[in-house]
């Protein structure tokens, strides 16, 4: 018998992870802790940039039709899901990164890109990139859901919690403590070492995925959730 997975990322990513878990014959419960909300943004002049950068598929979706004016620029996307979202939005030249922002900026520097327009969310962790001029345009925010529906019931099932970001890890720890649940009863699988650190101590088990992407996180979960 295996543990269920507790998916905490916002939609539509939560449903995508649930479907991917099902292909691995894993049961998953989605209880998003945040809701993605598009923001009004002012479009910078595309002639000022050599490339566009996306570190989240949410940014592609939130920016919407305004991206059309940047269609002639090459796109650097953090990973597979973000690259696919960029292609679907109409970009023809898309470079797929290794799954994390640091690796993506290293790719940009390696390609000799100098001026980058980064479409991003209001909450982000910025990587140092001294060789790049990065202008950030905020197109969405992940708003906190004060009382995530079904979280307490989900914790009753002794799930393995999947943490897709450091911010999710921090919020989940706060909610678990607030509900009076014991951290020692909950194992967690995190997308990165930073997310493990953000969750804090006291969990039944903590481990980070081999690479910072959903496929690696689910592979780790498949191993950890087996009792």
TrEMBL record:
Gene3D superfamilies: 3.40.50.10090. Residues 19-218 form the Tetrapyrrole biosynthesis uroporphyrinogen III synthase domain. It comes from the Bacteria. Pfam families: HEM4. This is Uroporphyrinogen-III synthase. It comes from Sphingomonas colocasiae.
């Amino acid at each position: 018998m295996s543990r269920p997975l507790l998916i905490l990322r916002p939609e539509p990513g939560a449903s995508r992870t649930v479907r991917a878990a099902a292909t691995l014959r894993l049961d998953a419960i989605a209880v998003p802790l945040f809701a993605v909300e598009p923001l009004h943004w002012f479009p910078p002049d595309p002639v000022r940039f050599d490339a566009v950068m996306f570190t989240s598929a949410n940014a592609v979706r939130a920016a919407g039709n305004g991206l059309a004016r940047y269609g002639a620029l090459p796109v650097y996307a953090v990973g597979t899901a973000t690259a696919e979202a960029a292609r679907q939005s109409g970009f023809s030249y898309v470079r797929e990164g290794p799954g994390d922002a640091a690796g993506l900026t290293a790719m940009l520097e390696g390609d000799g890109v100098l001026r980058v327009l980064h479409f991003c969310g209001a909450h982000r962790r910025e990587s140092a990139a001294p060789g790049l001029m990065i202008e950030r345009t905020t197109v969405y925010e992940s708003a906190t859901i004060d009382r995530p529906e079904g979280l307490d019931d989900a914790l009753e099932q002794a799930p393995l919690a999947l943490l897709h970001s450091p911010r999710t890890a921090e919020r989940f720890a706060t909610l678990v403590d607030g509900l009076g649940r014991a951290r020692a009863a909950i194992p967690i699988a995190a997308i990165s070492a930073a997310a493990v650190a953000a969750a804090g101590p006291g969990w039944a088990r903590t481990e980070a995925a081999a690479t910072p992407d959903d496929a690696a996180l689910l592979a780790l979960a498949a191993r950890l959730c087996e009792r």
